[in-house]
Amino acid sequence: MNKKTDIDIVIRYLEDPDNEQHKQQLNDWIQQDTANLDIFLDMKAMWQGDPLPAASAFDTQGQWLQLNATLDALPSTTTTSATATAASRNTRVFQMKARYWWAAAAVLAIGLTWTWLGPGSYKTITTAQNLDSLHLPDGSMVYINAHSTVRYSRTFGKNNRHIKIDKGEAFFDVVKNDALPFTVDAPDVEVEVLGTAFNVKAAGSGVKVFVQSGKVSAAYKGKGSDKKVILTPGQEASLARHGSTIDTRFYKKNNNILAWRTRTLTFDDAPLTEVAAALSDFYHVQVDISNQQLNDKKLLATFPNMPLEEVLDIMRKTLQINITHKDNLVEIY
C-alpha cells in the first residue's frame, strides 16, 4: 500500500463506484493478490466512517517514516494543460494534496490495523460463479455460495471462532465447543452458536439467518439485547440493513432456502409466487408474474440440478401457463 498507483485505484473507485472502468481496475488489482481485498475493505470502511480496532502497541515512529516516504514519492502538483491559469493550478494543487493526504492517512491507519491484527491475519475466500467449501481448523465446515466473500482469522480455532461474511451466502456446519462460541459477523448483524447447522445470507437489503439444526442467536450489532432473537430448526430471521426490528417465520420441511447447496429445487404444492422467488434466487434471474390471477397456482415438482429452460418447459406443460425467457428476465403470464 505504499505505492501511489495502488492508492489511486481504490480512491478512484470510492469516489465514483458506478464508473465501470474504475470497477474493472479495482477488480484486476484485487485479483493480483488476495491480500489486496483486505486492504480495499479496510479503506472502504474508513471511507464510510467505520471505526478501526485500537492497537495496544503501535510503532508510531515507524509508521510515520513510511508515511513520509509515501508522501515524498507523490507529485506535488499537476496541471491539465500548458495554458492553465495560475488560479486553476492552485485549485488543482489543493485538490491533489487533499486527495493524497487522505490516501496517506489511509496508509497510516491500515498500518495501525495490521499492527493490531498482524500481517495477513485474515484468510479470504471469494467466489465468482462457482460454489466452494471450506474445512475450518476446528473441524467445522463452511459451504459458500457463488458471488460471496468470506474471511476468517489465521488464529481461528485457537482463541476465537470468528468468521466474516462481507457479501453473499454461506452454510455453516459447526462443531460443538462450549468453551469457544462460533460467531458469524455479517453487515449490521452478528450470529452466535455453540454447535449447529445454519445458513446466513447477506444481501443489499439485509441479512437472513436460517437454522437447520441446533439453536442460533441473531442480533443487531450494538443495539441492545432487545434486538436479539433465538432461532430453532426450521426458523428464519430477517434483519434489515440499518434496521431495528427482526422478522421471523417457520418453514415447512420442503423449502428451498438451501437449494443453492443441495442443487435441488423442491415444490410441494407451492404457490407460483413462491416458485418465482425460488427460481430467481437459484438461477440468478428476474422472474415476473405479469398476470396476477396466476399467483395462487400450485406446483408439485422436484428439479434436481436441471437447466432453467428445462424447468420452465415443465412448468409450462404442468401449469398450462405462458413463460418467456430472454436475457436475464423470465416473464410468466
Automatic annotation (TrEMBL):
The chain crosses the membrane at residues 100-117. Residues 265-330 form the Protein FecR C-terminal domain. InterPro entries: FecR, FecR_C, Ferrdict_sens_TM. GO terms for molecular function: sigma factor antagonist activity. Residues 126-216 form the FecR protein domain. Keywords: Membrane, Transmembrane, Transmembrane helix. This is Ferric-dicitrate binding protein FerR, regulates iron transport through sigma-19.
